[in-house]
């Protein structure tokens, strides 16, 4: 069994990006600038956005955090999005999800200019991705693909079972892994809450990507020997004995499943750090494309 060490690989990617940023500075060029919009005070979102902004600082990007109160109106948020679209200093930005219930998430994501949409959530980018065109690939599936590529995991012709059909992970990873290319060319089955007998599917899988958000969902008797397991779940489980009051766990019964797996991602330290690294990679790409557009 080999651990797919997302922390280690994400640090490598960040170092590679930092070298490119240093070269940009030496040439007297503008460095990439990422902005993040956070509405409200959801604990997990605060942690993720904080981590994204800190990573920017570490690798030499400029960053801007726009933190709006929970009761921000949809109109005010759309105005902020319009301002970010118009601000030539910002190369890319994200609107952290989930948004408060009174705001129409789809309307906001549609308002993000596709050229600045480093999350790859706009239909223009999602559509281009699905059609093998140049776009921004959503950071979590992009991170999974990069992890598989860097560990040279053989995916060609392999049966990949994806659990969960979210727009952020399940749907895009099912598209990406079925495409041509490295860490792809797989035969993909997309399973979800209406799938009958998920266990009969996972037992056939060479690769499992679980993006469900249910702790300990994937058990050892649900997988075959030498399976590759990618655990995208990040659930906070309340725990009074911990200083933070919770611990983080994935979808996979890690201790038992790792005994059967050929490769497995830990939680934390697997897919999570890769998501941040690929957001930074997308921001670097946004800067390069922005520069070409202005040239
Ligand atoms: N919420 C959970 N994951 C993500 C992500 O990748 N991007 C944004 N904007 N919000 C999220």
Topology:
Elements lengths: L1 E2 L2 H21 L6 E7 L3 H17 L2 E7 L5 H13 L5 E4 L9 H7 L11 H8 L8 H12 L8 E5 L6 H9 L8 E5 L6 H5 L4 E4 L16 E5 L3 E4 L7 E4 L4 H4 L3 E4 L6 H24 L1
Parallel strand pairs: 1-11, 2-3, 2-4, 5-6, 5-7, 7-8, 8-11
Antiparallel strand pairs: 9-10
Question: Gist?
Answer:
It is built from ten helices and eleven strands. It has 295 residues and is α/β, with parallel strands linked by helices.
Can you describe this structure?
The protein is α/β, with parallel strands linked by helices. It has 2 domains: 28-113, Leucine Dehydrogenase, chain A, domain 1 (Rossmann fold); 139-273, NAD(P)-binding Rossmann-like Domain (Rossmann fold, 3-Layer(aba) Sandwich), CATH 3.40.50.720. Helices cover 41% and strands 17% of the residues. The protein is built from 10 helices and 11 strands. The chain has helices at residues 6-26, 43-59, 74-86, 105-111, 123-130, 139-150, 170-178, 198-202, 254-257, 271-294; strands spanning 2-3, 33-39, 62-68, 92-95, 159-163, 187-191, 207-210, 227-231, 235-238, 246-249, 261-264. Strands 1-11-8-7-5-6 form a 6-stranded parallel β-sheet. Strand 2 (33-39), helix 2 and strand 3 (62-68) form a beta-alpha-beta unit. Helix 1 packs parallel to helix 10 (271-294), helix 6 (139-150) crosses helix 7 (170-178) and helix 6 (139-150) packs across helix 10. The longest helix has 24 residues, at 271-294. It is globular and about 55 Å long. Guanine binds at residues 94-97, 119, 139-140, 168, 275. Guanine (GUN) is lined by residues 94-97, 119, 139-140, 168, 275.
């Amino acid at each position: 069994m080999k651990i797919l060490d997302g922390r280690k690989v994400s640090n490598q990617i960040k170092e590679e990006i930092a070298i490119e940023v240093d070269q940009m500075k030496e040439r007297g060029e503008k460095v990439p600038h990422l902005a993040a919009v956070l509405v409200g005070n959801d604990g997990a979102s605060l942690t993720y956005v904080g981590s994204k902004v800190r990573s920017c600082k570490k690798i030499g990007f400029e960053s801007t955090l726009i933190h709006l109160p929970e009761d921000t109106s949809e109109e005010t948020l759309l105005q902020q999005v319009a301002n970010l679209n118009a601000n030539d200093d910002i190369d890319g930005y994200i609107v952290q999800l989930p948004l408060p219930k009174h705001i129409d998430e789809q309307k906001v994501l549609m308002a993000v200019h596709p050229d600045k949409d480093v999350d790859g959530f706009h239909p223009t980018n999602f559509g281009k991705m699905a059609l093998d065109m140049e776009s921004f690939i959503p950071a979590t599936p992009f991170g999974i693909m990069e992890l598989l590529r860097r560990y040279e995991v053989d995916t060609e012709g392999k049966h990949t079972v994806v659990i969960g059909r979210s727009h952020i992970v399940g749907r895009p990873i099912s598209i990406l892994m079925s495409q041509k290319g490295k860490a792809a060319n797989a035969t993909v089955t997309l399973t979800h809450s209406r799938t009958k007998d998920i266990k009969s599917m996972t037992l056939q899988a060479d690769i499992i990507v679980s993006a469900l958000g249910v702790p300990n969902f994937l058990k050892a008797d649900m997988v075959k020997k030498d399976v590759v397991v990618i655990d995208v779940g990040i659930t906070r489980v309340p725990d009074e004995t911990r200083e933070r009051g919770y611990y983080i766990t994935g979808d996979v019964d890690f201790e038992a499943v790792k005994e059967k797996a050929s490769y497995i991602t830990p939680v934390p330290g697997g897919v999570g750090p890769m998501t941040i690294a690929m957001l930074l990679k997308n921001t670097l790409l946004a800067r390069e494309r922005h520069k070409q557009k202005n040239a």
